[in-house]
Specification:
The chain is α/β, with parallel strands linked by helices. Helices cover 37% and strands 24% of the residues. A four-stranded parallel β-sheet has the order 3-2-1-4. α1 links the parallel β1 and β2.
Length: 79
Amino acid sequence: MKIAVLSLSKQGAGVAETLCRAMPGARLYLHRDVAWHPRATRFASLMTVTADLFPRYRGLIFVAPCGAVVRALAPTIRH
């Protein structure tokens, strides 16, 4: 199953990395303002990366504030 784990903060990056290690094949995505990580794909906008990843992954796991996640997901949901 293709899973993407996204985080916006340094603290969240640690949680996201732990989740990725526990799920073989999961891909780590970190905001560009978070410290560099060798396994992470960087992104600048949660809205943009969510729109890009939503159709390509079976699941998205956000380690981020709920409000930011709802705003990022809203445009991708059709019904």
